[in-house]
Hints:
Elements: E1 5-7, E2 10-12, H1 14-22, E3 28-29, E4 33-38, E5 45-52, E6 59-64, E7 70-73
Antiparallel strand pairs: 1-2, 3-5, 4-5, 5-6, 6-7
Amino acid sequence: MSDNRVVEGRMVTPKKLAALVEGESVMDAEPIEDADRDCPECGGDVLSVGYMPSVTEFVTGYKCQDCDWSDREP
Ligand SMILES: [Zn+2]
């Protein structure tokens, strides 16, 4: 199920959220989930999204809902 979420005041799709983390558009993304962590910059809620930046890669992206902080693994 693909649910949109509000990030920095904008409604984003999973692929759009992944693009914010990656810095460019991605091939595919899984549904957005709530990450069990707080933003290290502002203490806000962090979302996670699994996505494929290319056909051979799968990474998990993390993005704060309130500020521009993001991270990715690996
Ligand atoms: Zn933040």
